[in-house]
């Protein structure tokens, strides 16, 4: 292979950032208030008993997408809200952070689900901390089958917390998100 071609390939690999997805939906009404785009990342280390998405556990490549293309596709819809779900989004924190920080600068509302706790993520690696700090809401904690309830809003089991990330960071304590109030406001807006 000619040297100049080698350089091109190295350069493309270096700058092309990707994310491995299990799926993407552009019209979710269950992953947070309002109509949202939800990114389901591929790969999860938690192996919760009773998980609804065991097909997302494998870290093998499934749908590897260019990050800039994903951002462009999100911006092409009228949704101004995005949820990172999985799988475990914080296992691809660098890619998720790039998407989240771009959208945050454009005024998007950002939620993420994680099997890690807020405290674990705050003590995680640089990319996990950056991604966490770019969010409005984190739904944290592993799914616990014994604590499962179908009546819970935006979470699957009672141990999980719907956390207002920005207020929690500014007060240095866990501040829960007022899910009931927001859900009511959201449904009013949805059906006007
Ligand atoms: S964290 Fe979520 S995706 Fe991962 S095993 Fe638990 S319930 Fe399933």
Description:
- Helix content is 35%, strand content 21%.
- It has 192 residues and is of the alpha/beta class.
- The protein has a single domain (18-191), classed as Aldolase class I (TIM Barrel, Alpha-Beta Barrel), CATH 3.20.20.
- A seven-stranded mixed beta sheet has the order 3-1-2-4-5-6-7.
- Strand 4, helix 3 and strand 5 form a beta-alpha-beta unit.
- Helix 2 packs parallel to helix 3.
- The longest helix has 13 residues, at 3-15.
- It starts with a helix and ends with a helix.
- Iron/sulfur cluster binds next to loops.
Topology:
Blueprint: H1 3-15, E1 18-28, E2 36-41, E3 63-66, H2 67-75, E4 81-85, H3 93-104, E5 109-114, H4 118-122, H5 126-133, E6 137-140, E7 161-164, H6 165-171, H7 179-191
Parallel strand pairs: 2-4, 4-5, 5-6
Antiparallel strand pairs: 1-2, 1-3, 6-7
Helix pairs in contact: 2-3, 3-5
CATH topology: TIM Barrel
Structural class: alpha/beta
Total DSSP helices: 7
Estimate percent helicity.
Answer: 25-40%
Number of domains: 1
User: Regarding CATH, which class?
Assistant: Alpha Beta
Report the radius of gyration as a whole number of Å.
17 Å
Helix/strand order, N-terminal first: HEEEHEHEHHEEHH
CATH architecture assignment name: Alpha-Beta Barrel
Distance between the termini: 62 Å
How many β-strand runs? 7
Strand order in the sheet with the most strands? 3-1-2-4-5-6-7
Low-confidence runs of at least 5 consecutive residues: 1-15, 188-192
Largest sheet, strands/sense/barrel: 7 strands, mixed
Shape verdict: globular
Strand portion:
15-25%
Mean pLDDT: 89
Bound molecules: iron/sulfur cluster
Question: In the CATH hierarchy, what is the superfamily?
Answer: Aldolase class I
